[in-house]
Design brief:
Elements (H helix, E strand, L loop, with lengths): L1 H4 L12 E8 L1 H12 L7 E5 L1 H4 L9 E9 H11 L3 H16 L7 H17 L5 H11 L12
Parallel strand pairs: 1-3
Antiparallel strand pairs: 2-3
Amino acid sequence: DEMAAQGLLPPVLDSRAVEISVVLADDAQVQTLNRDYRGKDKPTNVLSFPQLDEVAESLPQDATLPLGDLVLAYETVASEAKARDIGVEQHVSHLVVHGLLHLVGFDHEDDHSAEAMEKLEIQVMKRLGLPDPYQLDQHLIDTIKPASPAGNQRV
């Protein structure tokens, strides 16, 4: 509601019911999709396949809009959650929010777009009662400091 009021969502979404499909796949399947659709031959945590532009104008105003598909790579998601010391459910929530923003047209191709998208993700996560996912990343950066050479010497 707030995002629509701020003009952050495409007008076609105004007061419309939407649906998405979420697929939980293994890393191998996600790697294949990532290679075939993005030219990146490696797994990633979430892939977004928007459909909004393809179908929005052709459906009646009262029809549910299919936003698209999200595909999550289970092993990658679980590994990232463990590295951040958070539950898989919390990380999946963040990735679904992140993917949803991609489905409605947001990206992080440049610094400005990335900052805007992260700000929205943080707002949505807060509304869901979940912590800022990027604070978790900063916490990891702050706590993982390289050992100094002096620290490895025996006295």
